[in-house]
Amino acid sequence: MRLAFTLLLALSTSPAAAQALDPRRAPPDEERLLYAQVPDIQLTTSIGTQVRLSEVSRGRPLLLAFVFTRCAGVCSPFMRSWRSAERSVGRPAAYWRLVLSFDPRDTPADMATLAHHLDVKSGEDWTFAIAAPGDVRRLADATGFWYEWDRNLNQFDHPAMLAGIRSGRLVRLLVGGSVTSARLDELVREVSGVFVPSYPLPSRARFRCVQFDGTTGRVVLDWGFALLLVPVFSTSLATMGLFIVGARWRASRYRPEDTIVRR
Predict the structure, then answer these.
(1) Which residue, 194, 225, 248, sits at the end of a domain?
(2) Please, where are the H alpha helices in 44-203?
(3) What is the pTM of this model?
């Protein structure tokens, strides 16, 4: 028994076990930080201009991705899947896109090269930028994104994520190794203030009962709530129908002489 306990303690304190239990290495929680205020950090764009986060989108909703240009893993396929999904979703002018490096080694020239590889030209509503390490960390923490340097791989360990921001608040996260057109469409509609349902139906559409407005703090009923009333009204109508049919059936079989009491 003592030997088993010793082995269990050794495994629980091993680096592999500590990494598995480290909450920073878990995928970002898509609901934990929703509607939280994001810091208005200073950015340096790929063309060397200085701009604040609140100014980069020019008043439009913002989709934010964290990357680093020397990534040998998920960054490139994730960004390419985003570009591919956008061709299916459309509405490019409805929002702005920000690609921000979290690697202190990246320069504006590195970000310009990344934009070129992704075939993103100026004026396409994209901004590739870097920022001070402390500012990047604050923004990452506010959106649930994490990154850590892995000495063994000589790379950053990090998830792949798109953050939807509207009016300085986090509206929705899209977490995963690739971006599909269906999920991007939901993210774009959500960040644009359009109703996005949340309970899955047979088709791609979803619904929800209430909607929370992060800017006012109010919770209002959504059209999904009406769907919950459908069974109630259907049952009530069916019950009324049965009573009506039963009453008519009894009336059709009614004969006055049946009420005469024979002596």
Answers:
(1) 194
(2) 53-56, 75-89, 108-117, 133-143, 181-191
(3) 0.67
